Write the structure tokens for this entry.
Amino acid sequence: MKLKKHLIRYAFVYFVIILIFTFLSRTVRNWGLAEVEVVSIQSGTVSKTINAKSILEPMKKTEILAKADCKINEVYISNGQIVNAGDKLFKINTEEMSEILIKKELEIKRLEHNHKLLKQNAVSKNFDQITREGFDIDRQFIELDIESVKKEYEILKRALDSPIIYAESFGMVSDLNIIKGSTVLKGQEILAVTEIDKGYKLNLDINSDDVSAFLVGLEINIETNLGVATAKVESISGVGETKQIRLINITFPQLENVNLSENLVSITHKYSMAEGVLLLDKSSLYKINDNSYYVYTVSETEGIFGKERKVLKKSVEIGAKGDQYVEILGGIDTSDKVIISSSIPIIEGDRVR
């Protein structure tokens, strides 16, 4: 009887020792397992950020050109100055222009006299038909010259009547090319007035994959190195991988009376690619080729010493690709625990902790 009790006792102690050694051995082995971080699949929004650079241009910029050769008597403005409609810009020298006007009058009279002679010769019987036709062609050219000189004459006359040039609209003076006493030639740019209250425009070159962020007529918010701005999409053009987006009516609410034209701006535009979809962190995604991807998930089973965790490899189908997340179309669902990081490299079938 005593022997039996001793045997039972020894057997129990042996069993306990085996369990302890098994537990300790398992614990030691677990220390060598990869430690992984997992996340559950949740729904949300796939967002993407577009970064680009472009040159700001004013929506409306009026260039004031010299209508004739003239000398500047007074300059009332400076570069960067804000002007209102009706403000003085500059004054021209009327004495020199009066002399030019007299010359134009004489030129018109000379051309009209020549025109009269050619007209008479064109119908004269003293010349053959071919010669008369030549006179007729010359007469037509002179008619064009008369019309051109008369237009110049009217412009000069109006300038003499109003030697002071005024701003036609609110804006900011730029490209000022004159000082008091300077001489300008006909057609030369004297200055420009940028109507800063009308906003700005620019062109964006983007990847064709991002064109869905822009719809013609859509008003959007964009972030720039100059501040937050609002803009309207005017047009989308281009073929192939690159599309050109035309943004207009760009305004910077926090900036007032600042000429931003010709500025190289850095633009950031964040948009939603897909909403209310299953999300997968891009860091957990492995690429086989352009159309095939897989992830590692963790399966958990109950064992005698607790939960056992093993790595499973699952193919996934994805849709929209955002900055941090991609859209899941198939292969995994909300019941899966997806591995997003591991302390050491893993493969399918590995035990992990």
